[in-house]
Amino acid sequence: MTEAGELPPAPEAAREVFGERFPEAVRYAELLADAGVRRGLIGPREVPRLWERHLLNCAVLSEAVADDVTVCDVGSGAGLPGIPLALVRDDLHITLLEPLLRRTTFLQEVVELLGLDHVTVVRGRAEEVLGTLQPVHVVTARAVAPLDRLAGWGVPLLRPYGEMLALKGDTAEEELKNARAALSKLGVVKTSVLQVGEGVVEPLSTVVRAEVGESPGGVRFAAKRAKAARVSRSRRRR
Ligand SMILES: C[S@@+](CC[C@H](N)C(=O)[O-])C[C@H]1O[C@@H](n2cnc3c(N)ncnc32)[C@H](O)[C@@H]1O
Fold first, then answer.
1. Ligand 1: which residues within 6 Å by Cβ?
2. Residue 164 pairs with which residues in a beta bridge?
3. CA 22 – CA 161 distance, rounded (Å)
4. What is the CATH number of the domain that holds 109?
């Protein structure tokens, strides 16, 4: 294994961004740098850039999230962007959705250690928890899948008029172009690319926003698919 680099002291911007929750943000950075690396949840080479590239880059997503809404962070991994978002926003109700047990165990520990009462950890794949999770106002995701595939997993979890916020890098415009047809099939009525984190992160964080209308088509398609799968399973059993 590559030797883990040193966790640098928190940058000044982190104090401002995390405010009262700054001590918890430091604790989270330490947990990622220690248990996160030992348990293979984050690469050792990421440690020196944990603050800028991970915690702050994710926390600034808050600029795009409305007040008092429900959020599902799909493919949360070691808690990104869900945990930094929870640290800066007590008003949100956040579900961290992650299929791998090793990762949900870590997430549950982090949530308890940091006292994040507004965060729930759910183990599962987005396409499998559909129908068991309450539809949410906002789906967030970072580094989970290309936009068209991610949309197929994330958009069906949305309530009417909800939105998916995907943290993407330089590929945002390109991915959006390639995903247009898939997004429209899923009931996405408006898309945009925004930059967040002015004065905090350099380069700025790029976010693809995909908004659904009154009746997210994805929900209907996914429900139809789930029903077809149930029918075919019961036919096979007969
Ligand atoms: C590369 S990691 C990114 C983790 C985190 N979002 C980050 O930015 O560091 C992708 C994560 O997506 C999860 N994942 C993959 N397919 C998924 C699905 N269908 N539903 C939910 N999560 C999924 C994986 O288990 C993994 O933890």
1. 74-78, 80, 97-100, 103, 125-127, 142-144, 153
2. 139, 210
3. 33
4. 3.40.50.150
Which candidate, 58, 6, 9, places its Cα nearest to that of 37? 6
Residue 30 lies in a domain: no
Question: Is 71 a member of any domain?
Answer: yes
- Are 168 and 148 in contact by the 8 Å Cβ rule? The answer is no
pTM for the structure as a whole: 0.91
Q: What are phi and psi for residue 148, nearest 5 degrees?
A: -65, -40
CB 195 within 8 A of CB 167: no
Amino acid at 35: A
Residue 164 included in any domain:
yes
Mutate which of 144, 148, 157, 168 for ligand 1? The one with the most ligand atoms within 8 Å of its CB, which is: 144
In the Cβ-directed half-sphere of 31, how many Cα atoms lie within 13 Å?
A: 20
Does some domain include residue 4?
A: no
3-state secondary structure of 105: helix
Burial class (CB in 10 A: 0-12, 13-18, 19+), 116: buried
CA 144 to ligand 1: nearest atom? 10
Of 55, 113, 47, 42, give the one whose Cα is nearest residue 83.
Answer: 55
Domain carrying residue 122: 62-237
| Domain tally, the chain | 1
pLDDT digits (tens, 9 = 90+) for 134-181: 999 999 999 999 999 999 999 999 999 999 999 999 999 999 999 999
User: pLDDT of 33-49, one tens digit each?
Assistant: 999 999 999 999 999 99
